[in-house]
Design goal:
- It is a single chain.
- The chain is built from ten helices and two strands.
- With 195 residues, it is mainly alpha-helical.
């Protein structure tokens, strides 16, 4: 059972940390810190994907990219290996930051370990909730970031990344991706990646 006061306190602290993101994104007519906006979108998708999400999953959804800007991508080589090294370093950083906030909010080590497992993906793909978090992350990427990356990436790279993303997603999430209201350019590349 969720302790509402403790849960609300933890979410507020996570949001306060992500609100420090110096990168700003415009959404629905207002400018917001990028990581704050992204984490809230993932949180919303998790609630759509899972009828009764655990407290740990909800906390993970909000914290899984906690303070990402503190580990810039350009610290690592612009290669596939460099990308994976960056992702692993980020995951450890997010999990450490989340653990600190959750300890201060009064969570026990067992719950913190489960949240850390979601964030570092150590329990994916064997755990249904871990799969839901991955699905939510991928769906938010498609919804909000794909169009921008289409202008930056060549077609081969785009298709490779999308195909890898779809392999990670559950059949339910792939169907949701197909039904997303994307622009014609995004829809065309999505259809090619899914073919």
């Amino acid at each position: 059972m969720i302790n509402d006061a403790r849960f609300a306190d933890a979410l507020n602290k996570i949001d306060e940390a992500n609100a420090q993101d110096p990168r700003i994104e415009n959404a629905a007519g207002s400018s917001q810190p990028r990581e704050l906006l992204f984490s809230r979108r993932v949180f919303e998708w998790v609630q759509k994907l899972v009828s009764a999400p655990s407290e740990e999953l909800l906390l993970s959804a909000r914290a899984h990219t906690l303070k990402r800007w503190e580990i810039p991508r350009d610290r690592y080589p612009k290669t596939t290996v460099g990308y994976h090294e960056w992702r692993d370093a980020c995951a450890e950083h997010h999990a450490d930051e989340a653990a600190r906030i959750l300890r201060n909010a009064g969570y026990d080590e067992e719950m913190i370990a489960r949240v850390s497992g979601f964030i570092t993906r150590t329990n994916w793909p064997g755990d249904a909730e871990a799969c839901a978090l991955e699905d939510a992350d991928c769906l938010v990427f498609l919804e909000t970031k794909l169009a921008k990356y289409l202008d930056e990436w060549d077609e081969e790279k785009t298709l490779r990344i999308l195909k890898r993303s779809f392999k990670k997603m559950t059949p339910q999430a792939r169907e949701l991706a197909k039904a997303m209201p994307l622009d014609s350019k995004c829809r065309a590349v999505l259809a090619r990646a899914l073919a």
